[in-house]
Amino acid sequence: MNNRQKTPHGASTASPEEVARFAAMADEWWDDTGKFKPLHKLNPVRIAFIRDMLAAHYDRDITAALPLHGLALLDVGCGGGLISEPLCRLGADVTAIDAGQEAIDVATNHAAQSGLNIAFRHDTPESLADEGLQFDVLVSLEVVEHVADLNAFLGALASLTKPGGVIILATLNRTLKSLALAKIGAEYILRWVPRGTHDWRKFVKPSELTKGLEPLGVHLHSMQGIGFDPLHDNWFASEKLDVNYLASFTKD
């Protein structure tokens, strides 16, 4: 087997430094007590937001066994597949891409072991946009704060979204509170994630997402913050957007 990393086709907003950083941790994607523990903890809140936004937009019953059945969904920056798998289980027809071959290998193997049919690709959104592909739903969680060119990345997401489709993003707000909690606290005090995982200067304000997508005919629908309860070690939906937040957009 050739272990040399394949270069994704087409132009790319992927940061080589960020890809290398996550490649070094790829074997730990599904260890819910390891370096990706915060993402495992965040997943119930993230999945509930995605399910509820899509159910409302596409008039689906969230109590149904497969509320996302028939929706073509692209998970951009899928990592080891932590979001791809539960969305597949909710019925979505999932394609998932990542700029790191190591992450795709982990995701492909884990999904196969779980009996899930997910189309994983080592690729970039720019490349898929060049192919003319479009999806009902674009999901990209905890990715925009790692890309090399935010506006170019948002442009690719918009191109990949069908008219009337939905884009759902999750990221970190660039505030003093997020500097204290998500950067200094999470990396240096609590050691939830490895040091250097985030660059606070690349955290993205909600207004920056809106300004990047509005000219592309993609409009904000809803935003929700995510709070943390240290007493019970769990995350919960919140009205406060000053640290972690989720955003749902619709395309004209």
Summed up, the domain count is 1
Q: CATH homologous superfamily - what is it?
A: Vaccinia Virus protein VP39
Biggest sheet: strands side by side, in what order? 3-2-1-4-5-8-6-7
Q: What order do the helices and strands follow? A: HHEHEHEHEHEHHEEE
CATH architectural arrangement: 3-Layer(aba) Sandwich
Strand content: 15-25%
- At the first level of CATH, the class is Alpha Beta
Computed CA radius of gyration, to the nearest angstrom: 17 Å
Taken from the alpha-carbon principal axes, the silhouette is globular
The CA-CA distance between the termini, in Å, is 45 Å
The number of helical elements comes to: 8
Here the CATH topology equals Rossmann fold
Protein structure class:
alpha/beta
How much helicity do the residues have?
Answer: 25-40%
Overall average residue pLDDT? 91
How many extended strands?
Answer: 8
| Largest sheet properties | 8 strands, mixed
Give an overview in words.
- The chain has a single domain, classed as 3-Layer(aba) Sandwich (Rossmann fold), CATH 3.40.50.
- Helix content is 35%, strand content 23%.
- The chain has eight helices and eight strands.
- It has helices at 16-23, 37-57, 84-89, 101-113, 125-130, 150-160, 176-189, 206-213; strands spanning 72-76, 93-98, 119-122, 135-141, 161-172, 218-229, 234-238, 244-251.
- A hairpin with a 4-residue loop joins strand 6 (218-229) and strand 7.
- The radius of gyration is 17 Å and the shape is globular.
